[in-house]
Specification:
The chain has helices at 2-20, 23-41, 45-70. It is mostly helical.
Amino acid sequence: MRGHLNAVDRLRRLTDYRQMLDRNSARERCREHIELLDLILAGKNVEASRYMARHLEDLGRLKTVARELRG
């Protein structure tokens, strides 16, 4: 089981790496990370939590679309 989890983790990292090759996407993710950090530093933890939830949902959708496009 552990070997299977390691393979899945490596595949996930490869998928993430391939998506990072898109510079516009990478720029947008960086902008989102900075916005999230700004919320945290401002002590707006509830807003940061909501923002992070939306961010993860959006990334999940983007990854699903990318996988479907690749076949």
